[in-house]
Amino acid sequence: MQLMEHILDNPVYNALISGNQKLSLGTESAKYFAQDVAPFVGLKEATAENFEQLYHMLPSESTFAFFSPTEISIVHPWEVLNHLKCLQMVFNTVLEPVVTETRIIPLHSVHVPQMIALTQLTKPGPFFANTIEFGNYHGIFEGDDLVAMAGNRMHPFHYTEISAVCCHPDHSGKGYARMLLQNQIRLIQQNDNIAFLHVRSDNERAVKVYKDLGFEVRREVSIYSIQKHISF
Question: Would you say residue 117 has pLDDT above 70?
Fold first, then answer.
């Protein structure tokens, strides 16, 4: 059995029983988000029995992501498609006041087509038709075009994850991502929450940006991309 002692050791499950409960599907032991919101699944405990219970809940045509604080073995009937190492980073300091003339606009359902187009171009992580249900998405526009955005994702208890941080490559170097990150941190701290995020361990450029902002590495986590084993 895998022991998870900190809230962020099991962020998906803890989000689904707390801040993201309205988006939660499944049972007490095995939970998941609606597929048009996020492909994330979570278990109360990472046991073979709970993995099997989850297996029978989910459709076979989709891929799902399971977060683990350590490397684990996920066995048949699941098929592991990919194993990604990420850093889990937490913002534990007080954000200094930020002054900017750039307009940061709240994003709503009418903006979803542009949000999907931007995330498909920049690949910050999965973003679907109803991912906006996580809330607090903000963006920067040049004319009528959305060129940068960031938002919230998982909300396990008093932690809030920043996600979908991205900027159109034609507008890089303008500091938009940093502005949006600072805006997200400010909003999270106003709600007496602690900001955190996940970034690929090998994405040195992004890790440096987050550290420069004040994020600290809490630990490395494993994210497994899993699918039902399909027999032919």
Answer: yes
Provide the number of structural domains found in the chain. Answer: 2
Mark out the alpha helices in 35-175 (DSSP H runs). Answer: 48-57, 112-122
- Look up the domain containing 82 and give its range: 7-88+221-228
Asked if residue 155 and residue 184 are part of one domain, the reply reads yes
Q: Can you give the length of the chain in residues?
A: 232
CATH code for the domain in which residue 108 is found: 3.40.630.30
Residue pair 156/8 in contact (Cβ under 8 Å)? The answer is: yes
113 and 184 together in one domain? yes
Backbone angles phi, psi at 61, to 5 degrees: -85, 0
Q: CA–CA separation, 137 vs 219, rounded Å?
A: 26
Domain co-membership, 43 together with 126: no
The residue assigned the tokens 């405990």 is: 45
pLDDT in tens, 48-99: 999 999 999 998 778 999 999 999 999 888 999 999 999 999 999 988 777 7
Contact 120, 84 (CB under 8 A): no
- Name residue, tokens 């032919």: 232
- State the pLDDT confidence band at 230, using cuts at 50, 70 and 90: low
Its pTM stands at: 0.94
What pLDDT score was predicted for residue 4?
A: 52
Average pLDDT over residues 140-161: 97
